[in-house]
Amino acid sequence: xxxRPLSVTLTYGFIILNIIIWFALGVIIAFDxxxxxxxxxxxxxxxxxxxxxxxxxxxxxxxxxxxxNRVAYYLMLIGLGVAMLxxxxxxxxxxxxxxxxxxxxxxxxxxxxxxxxLHRQIL
Length: 123
Prior knowledge:
The protein is mainly α. It has helices spanning 6-30, 41-65, 70-88, 94-112, 114-118. 21% of the residues are buried.
């Protein structure tokens, strides 16, 4: 029986935390609680929708990543990398630094445990 390494469990935890953060950001924007959003409802709607889409895409990719799906592994790397880039191209503050770390840590752990994620388990 194969044991899941602690670093893989940590990776999964950080990915779930990313999903929660993107979903929460969507809720915050949708309910007009974000102080730095533009006044136009159209742009708020787009940004809230994109946050929900990001959370959903990360969730679906996460489910397939747990099944050792090769495509999901590379999509998760891309998704976390894009999240990092989006964070860095914004006005950078302490919250952005935390968000950057919450995307960087699972990215590094995914690369570290590449063999575990890309190995097909025999049922």
